[in-house]
Each structure stands twice: as C-alpha cells, then as structure tokens.
Amino acid sequence: MNDRIGKIIDFLKAAPNDCFLNHAIALEYVKAGDESSAQKHFEINLKNDPGYVATYYHLGKLLERLHEQVKAITIYEKGMEVAKAAKDMHTYSELQGAYEELVD
Which CATH class is domain 3-103? Predict the structure, then answer.
C-alpha cells in the first residue's frame, strides 16, 4: 500500500463518509490499479452525497475501463442531471463530452 493511501485511510477512520476523502482515496486506488477499491469508494460518495458531482465523471471513466459501458452511460447521464441542477456547467460539459464519446 502506498503512503498516500495509508494516510487517507487514517483520515477516513475518523470521517468514513467524508466525500473529499473517499474521492481522494478512490483516485489513489485508480492510480494503483485497484479498480475494485476505487469503485467502492466512488459508490460510497454516490450513496452519501449524490450531489458530489466530481464522482460521476471519475466513476464513469472507471466503468469504461472495466468494459461496463452501459453502467458508465447511466452514471454520465445522472451526473449531467446533478451538475445541471447545481448549475455546474464546467462539470456538465466534461460529463457530456465523456458521454458523447461513449455513445457515438
């Protein structure tokens, strides 16, 4: 386990539902090639705070790498809805671009 993951795990012990920490550790697991752990932490974020828009893009990309295109499309669509409702047009555009690449 790399040092960054260990440190984030320590922080998560005190705040297991913290979206920033779950997002950060998921990205570290992606870098380490541990897709299962990454997916678990992205999904924790969706459960605890479906309005945490960054989760949708990164989870969608992970699902694409896992050859789960249908699930990725669903995540991108939901993320676009959430980003639009939050008036986060930057994230909306990123999600839309990923979605369009996948469905074209």
Answer: mainly alpha
Residue range 54-93, pLDDT digits in tens:
999 999 999 999 999 999 999 999 999 999 999 999 999 9
Integer Cα distance of 12 and 90 in angstroms: 28
The domain spans of the chain are 3-103
Q: Which two tokens stand for residue 83?
A: 């980003």
